[in-house]
UniProtKB/TrEMBL annotation:
Keywords: Cell cycle, Cell division, Cell shape, Cell wall biogenesis/degradation, Cytoplasm, FAD, Flavoprotein, NADP, Oxidoreductase, Peptidoglycan synthesis. Its EC number is 1.3.1.98. It catalyses: UDP-N-acetyl-alpha-D-muramate + NADP(+) = UDP-N-acetyl-3-O-(1-carboxyvinyl)-alpha-D-glucosamine + NADPH + H(+). It is an enzyme of class 1 (oxidoreductase). This is UDP-N-acetylenolpyruvoylglucosamine reductase. The keyword Transmembrane helix does not apply. Pathway: Cell wall biogenesis; peptidoglycan biosynthesis. It is found in: Cytoplasm. GO terms for molecular function: UDP-N-acetylmuramate dehydrogenase activity. Its cofactor is FAD. Belongs to the MurB family. Cell wall formation. The lineage of its organism: Bacteria, Pseudomonadati, Bacteroidota, Cytophagia, Cytophagales. The keyword Cell cycle applies.
Length: 334
């Protein structure tokens, strides 16, 4: 058996039947063709930043460590930058920022890898993967052929994509390409970014200044997984109908809310509900809710995946009972 504690940011102790690490898609194809692990299901791990391990994994765990950052193409206005699936996401973002290419700066310091990013259309501070996504390459696990997906084929939604729905378990993403702007077209409409820039007297921020502001915000609010086990936001921000939104706004004046593009639906911050229900800073054993960000569940040391999961279910029930709002888990439960 192989310990997975070092391969998930929650720091949960769980074991796998078998474990391999790959640095190319050809390695995995060869492994599959050898038939050596044909008797086991295959579980793919990137940075382990969006999973909660609740039991031993009777599987071959495949750690995706495909490297490489490549400039594929450029014209007068844009560059097409490709990242291997195993590249640390923030290293990819900071590389683009340092080159002066705009589009990913608001996604600074999000944990995980490049390959995992499009699976759930990661987003933060007014930006999402789909905004700059060009294409990705993924291995069809049935045919062992590499296929190319454009944005339409990925069918991006709020923290989801084709790969979390119809294509779940059918593909292994090997690389992702982004179309980034050579012109500084920064997004600073998110309130916290404006506040940080204002305190520094910055009125016309550069790409680097926006990235640094985002990094400062995240570090002030979110725990470092190296210090306290966590997987970032545990729940999705709930989206409700216009009539349901009107009920919430009437019942709770001042509740933060945001329009959903192309829809009459309204999005509310899950952290607001969790904090108002009294869960912020809650701790039971080594499982808890972070004291600075109610959206983040944490492992203070020796919590089991089952204990974290049980806490999340208690919170869901509490929010439903108190506000009539259903929370969805963003983290993948394994």
């Amino acid at each position: 058996m192989y310990s997975l504690r070092a391969y998930n940011t929650f720091g949960i102790e769980a074991e796998a039947s078998q474990f391999v690490e790959i640095s190319s898609i050809d390695q995995y194809i060869s492994l599959r063709k050898s038939g050596e692990y044909a008797h086991l299901p295959h579980l793919f791990l990137g940075g382990g930043s969006n999973v909660l391990l609740t039991k031993a994994q009777e599987a071959l765990v495949v750690k995706i460590s495909i490297p490489g950052i490549t400039l594929l193409n450029e014209d007068a206005d844009f560059v097409w930058l490709k990242g291997g699936a195993g590249v640390v996401w923030d290293e990819f973002v900071q590389y683009s920022v340092n080159q002066g290419w705009s589009g990913l700066e608001n996604l600074s310091l999000i944990p995980g890898t490049v390959g995992a990013a499009p699976m759930q259309n990661i987003g933060a501070y007014g930006a999402e993967i789909k905004d700059t996504f060009a294409s990705l390459e993924a291995l069809n696990l049935e045919t062992l052929e590499v296929e190319v997906f454009d944005a339409k084929a990925c069918d991006f939604g709020y923290r989801e994509s084709f790969f979390k729905r119809a294509g779940k378990g059918q593909y292994l993403i090997s690389s992702v390409t982004f179309k980034l702007s050579k012109q500084a077209s920064v997004k600073t409409s998110y309130g916290a970014i404006q506040e940080v820039l204002a305190t520094k007297g910055i009125t016309q921020p550069s790409i680097r200044e926006v990235a640094d502001a985002v990094i400062e915000i995240r570090r002030s609010k979110l725990p470092d997984p190296k210090e306290i086990g966590n997987s970032g936001s545990f729940f999705k921000n709930p989206t409700v109908s216009a009539s349901e939104a009107a009920r919430l706004i009437s019942a709770y004046p001042g509740i933060p809310n945001y329009p959903v593009d192309g829809s009459t639906d309204v999005k509310f911050p899950a952290g607001w509900f969790i904090e108002k229900a009294g869960w912020k800073g809650y701790r039971k054993g080594d499982a808890g809710v972070h004291a600075k960000q109610a959206l983040v569940l944490v492992n203070y040391g020796e919590a089991t995946g089952g204990e974290i999961l049980a806490l999340s279910e208690e919170i869901k029930k509490s929010i439903k009972d108190t506000f009539g709002v259903s929370l969805e888990t963003e983290v993948n439960i394994l």
